[in-house]
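Researcher: Next sequence.
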Amino acid sequence: MKISESDFYENFNSFEDLESEIWNQMLVKTIAMMETDPVYMEYSVREKLLAFYYSLLEELKANRSFILAEIGDVEFKPKVPTYLKRLKKSFQNYIDTLMLEGRDTSEVASRPVIESQYSNLFWMQLVFIIQFWIKDDSRKFEKTDTAIEKSVNLSFDLIGKGAIDSMLDFAKFMYQNKMS
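Model: Next structure:
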């Protein structure tokens, strides 16, 4: 890198810290780029997440050799590798912001018991997408694009208000207003 060791340690305490920052900056750069686009700001929450994944994929493609060297064939495990912890925290903050917006626009159903876990569920989705992309041998990673679309659509179908929510709401209403 053509810097002195002391200059390196002014910014990072280890190579692992540097790796962690590289991963985090890919995410930060992706979000910053999207948030400067006025069209992105008008998207639904589902569309914002789709745009995020597609944009992040472009950033990952630009750094594919680094990512393959870092991850290789490592499978997802419950314990997050140290070099991804900063990325995970930044990603979960981004997801929490989207979920708040989604509740305001009614794209995300209010489910007090489980909604605190949405950021963890979307983290697993991000890990799935990265692992899928690493193994994707299709031209221009077209299978990964399809996996992104289908997984995001499924996620929003599950966290949005649906038939089960309507049934529970109706049952609650009937219980509260039962006729004697």
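Model: The chain has a mean pLDDT of 89. The longest helix spans residues 15-35.
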